[in-house]
Amino acid sequence: MADQETKTSVEQHIQNNIKGETWEVVHYLAMALKADNEGKTEVAYTLRSIAMDEAAHGARFKYLAGEIGDLKDEIEKMLAGEEKAYEGKHEGMKEAEASGQKEVASFFDTAAHDEGRHAAMLRNLLERYC
Hints:
Layout (H helix, E strand, L loop, with lengths): L1 H36 L3 H24 L6 H28 L3 H28 L1
């Protein structure tokens, strides 16, 4: 029984860390954007560096948890997600435009194009390597 409790406890700690590291990445990057907008270049650079460390931590926990399977399957899953994100961001853009939020709509459009670019990159990987 103790082994099962320890295993569950370790697995829960890993999952908590994946979630925590993910949140930290986004928060540090948002802080870096604010620092950039305030002309604090060194602060922004440092915050981005910390964010990348946090991303590496989360990735390692995810890997150690055995959550990354067959690479081709993982790429196909991510491709489907990027395509869905492309569509979803365009829907968000339309909603933002309809409500008069031009800056938000513009960013949804930019992010949608990024998602489309990501999808194309993943398709290319599948065609070339998988």
